[in-house]
Amino acid sequence: MTEGDRKPEYRPGLEGVPAAKSSISYVGIQTNDLGEREGVLEYRSIPIQALAEHSNFVETAFLLIWGRLPTHAELDKFSTEIYSHRRIKYRIKDMMKCFPETGHPMDALQASAAALGLFYSRHTLPNPEYVGQAIIRLLAKIPTMVAAFQLMRKGNDPVMPRDDLDYAANFLYMLTEKEPDPIVAKVMDVCLILHAEHTMNASTFSARVTASTLADPYTVIASSVGTLAGPLHGGANEETLLMLEKIGTVANVRPYVEQCLKLDPKHKFMGFGHRVYKGVKDPRAIILQNLAEQLFQKFGYDPYYDIALELERVLEEYLGGRGIYPNVDYYSGLVYRKMGIPTDLFTPVFAIARVAGWLAHWNEQLQENRIFRPTQIYTGSHQQPYIAIDNRHE
Ligand SMILES: CC(C)(COP(=O)(O)OP(=O)(O)OC[C@H]1O[C@@H](n2cnc3c(N)ncnc32)[C@H](O)[C@@H]1OP(=O)(O)O)[C@@H](O)C(=O)NCCC(=O)NCCS
Fold it and tell me: In 3D, which of 178, 118, 174, 180 has the Cα closest to residue 146?
């Protein structure tokens, strides 16, 4: 028996194990005045509903990162700095031009985010000036890189950011080469607010683990983008739309669900379920459903919405008793589809928003850093002989 044999409690996926103390955001479930259970999400103590209604993404990013709402002067300075750093270096564009156009935009984003670090020399962390500059650069340049890859893979040159457009409108402009309708730009801005932060999820944990080694912030964001890409996390919005596409018609919803559950009673339906919002609908899904309906009213109906509503009804019947309801990814895909955003860009759009939360956690981690070094439960044997290669069996 060695020291490494002590057996701490093992929780797969670290479920329920606190990984940090944080005042950035809160998720939970509360009972409202009508006695109904509902999901709660707060950024720096402010309910997400209030931010979606009154704030904008840049202000929300300031709130998350710096811990309070900015004054007029602070918001002007923060926005101006972000807007003036939206261009990306031609070397980054040249590097992106070499990416295969068939590659996934999340992989392109991860590589480009990491490459940004090559241009901004490393400093000993935490250095407040470097931290502030990195925050501005990452918030400013990530949307430009997502849009640039989209245009380049179509064979077009990326367009320059427009200084007269705000954060969301400029992103849509760089993506589509057209100035967006103000309603579409507003809806995109709210989507960015809704996706900006969500406590200790996988990609945020990834940000904090990488931050804890004092790696540079571009590496921190690149590692988080990689973690967000998986279908159990950010990739679920893309998978949700592919699922609706596969179902194809409202009439096919029930047979599809029955077939999936017959093949695998534990089948995971994309866009449903959440580690925290158990037994309630994700509050962001409620806001997003509303936004989707606003877009349909203005720009025409989407038949996929009927399929989504029917699937929600049928799954309530099959899974509702187990507390599984739509999460943020269920309706976001329909909103983005109506905006004309290609399906494989849904997760990069999520990443653009989540950069704010990751940066807030990076900054918070640096304030009281201790390198992450969990332990493991060793399940192998000990003291085995080394067998010469000629004596090994197939
Ligand atoms: C998000 C997710 C990973 C959370 O998982 P979790 O908290 O670990 O929950 P579990 O995977 O332990 O699931 C708990 C139970 O609900 C079921 N369940 C969870 N999500 C489900 C889904 N989307 N469809 C069907 N059943 C689901 C599980 O099979 C499990 O059932 P059991 O208790 O009978 O074994 C999971 O719900 C999921 O994979 N959802 C689909 C992907 C998705 O939409 N991700 C985006 C999250 S914002």
Answer: 174
